[in-house]
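Obj.: predict assembly geometry.
Materials: sequence records (below).
Method: joint structure prediction, all chains together.
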Amino acid sequence: MSSPLENPTDFSARERRALETLVKRLGDDEFVLAERYTEWQVRAPSLESDLALANNAQDELGHARLWYDVLADLDVDERDLVYERDPADFRHSTLVELPFAEGDWADAVLRSYLYDAAEDLRLEALEDSAYPPIADRVGKIRSEEEYHLEHARNWLERLAEGEEGRDRLQDALDRLFPHALTLFESATPPVETAIPTREASGSNEIERNTDETSGDRSDADAAAAVEGDIVDFGLRTATLEELGEEWLSIVVPFLESLDLDVPIDESTIGEGVEYAVTVESLPTQLGRDGTHTDAWFDLYDDLTHTYRELERSDAAKIREDPDR
Amino acid sequence: MIWEVFRQEQAGEYHTHCGNVHAPDREMAKQFAAVQHGRRKPTNSLWVVPRDEVGEITGDDVAFGGTTDKSYRWATTYRTTGADASEVVESESEQADAEQGRGDD
Amino acid sequence: MDLETVKDRAGPRAFSPADDLPQEYREAATRMIEFHANSEIMGAYLERPFIRQAPSIDRKLAFSAKVQDEIGHGQLLYRAAESLGVKSREQMLADLANGDGKFLNCFHYPMESWVETPMIAFFVDGAAMRRQATLRRTSWEPYAHAMDKVCFEEGFHVKHGEDILQELMTGSRKERQLTQEAFEKWWPRIIQFFGPTDDDSTHHDFAASVGLKQKSNDELRNAFLDQYIPKARNYGLEIPDEPRIRERDDGTYEVEEGDLDWDEFFAIAKNEYEPGRDQIGGRRAAQEAVQWVRETIDETIARGHAPRAAD
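Observations (raw structure tokens):
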């Protein structure tokens, strides 16, 4: 299937594009979720829960930096990835970008559960990645994620005990679940790949089609093609469909055990699989294809405010090459 | 019933775990602890806590302080110039010790 | 124990919850520690938006960790205050929300730009640390124990704040200029951090006589100026002309108190300064919005339904 990918300078354009697309979906998810989690700092239900969620936020943000650092070897730095990237070129799931309504702790813990359950599965599928910098990162990230998942489950179980808690969880579930499904959508490769194309041949088949009349179609094709490459090159060892099905088989029974109604159309369940992600259950904006809710653009504006205000041209690092 | 015993040597110091006693109730536990754990070593105060009431979480259950690089949390990471206030110097040195103890460096 | 005995025995970490202490001591200690705890929370509230606005991932991480630490300090301090048996943490947080709880002057001012962050994270935290270091010898043992952990952690806050200042003052001309302007705006407030001169301080005498407070306002302000004027100059900040500060022959400083706005200071002390009221109100809204979570958990416990309670 694939040989180990060792030296980024020897990558074909297709390999680079697959790597960049994968790392962006990983890093962007963690980055934007962390950004949202920090909204709970000084606002959580108790001082102790404030500390705990802040910790999870720092973990996720640290993971974002770890993923983004994978691209440093390809000469893409934090400035390009965060502060000077077109917000429409971010590839995170819309689950992580939605704002929290004030006091909606049910949303916070449910979102965390939906995300962390998926995170656990995708990390498992990266453990044997053909690209060593990815595989090397998985162990450390995963042991932090275990706490997150346990933390989320503990809160869900407790909130679901009360009537108001369960009602609020149900509201949050109805709202969040379609967005959670976008975690398993394939990502459109970056519009302008920041990686210089060093080969003229062998990569043309997935170049973005700039013909506007067929834009949507070619985006979807390009996303499918690059997702195929991610698995074919062994960057990730499971397909998104497999991850999505496995995720559903974990989260649906758990949420139902809390007396919550999971908004999934069970009539679409196919042969041999218990659950499947279908187009009908997805929200309008998928995130993975660069379409985002308005909230993301506001968030991006806020988080780049200082960088723009001070006319910065670089993002200051305190730590060089973490975990290298 | 087992009671865990924490001893404070002198007023102002911390109570630290020093052992336990078997006792049927809190009163008896205090009396037994006073003799078993307070008769030789200097003691200002003892706490007794029912063993069953002690929750425990260990490094096997959770990665304390995380497994990824958290050096941004440590004073030692920052390279500033000029003489620092004595309490900042002290804090930094305590943090350096803690970092070493944690095996971060 | 009567008050005279307390005064006789008032040494570092002399009193613990096991001691039978007079009400005057308990109330004075509660007031002092509650003020300190409230200040941790309101400082964190003020700095929180800059987790998002920090101009790099690492700065964001450090800011998040710092705000997290401050909430942790609040947790420690409310417990130290609670252990005096006068007020519960819930009452103290309710008072903070409804505008009765008092906190440091600096945290009543709005903070609008990143260039202001070192004013809090370096200068105010540096000032706080000068005071906190002395409180490791306070007479209320739980307070002193809280200070041990606070002082251990706080060095990171001051160093990180200083690192931001260093970055700004070695940055572009615009950054240096904006930072100097922010410094001029915050400097008088920072001087007032230590309160009025000892003559005008109402609570000091009693707090000092029972060993709660270890240094006077003037002593702490001197210690701060002595350390932080050279630091400010080191990074190229110019000390504003006002308030006028004279260095005496013995190396201590005399601040021209008339140059400072004490009307504003005392309005703040009564929670009557408008921007501060907005901050109190904003935090109250946040606290009330999660009241349902606390109620849900309390009900769950009351019904004995807590999942895995036996763990």
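Conclusions so far: The first strand of chain B starts at residue 2 and ends at 8.
To do: check interface contacts against the pulldown list.
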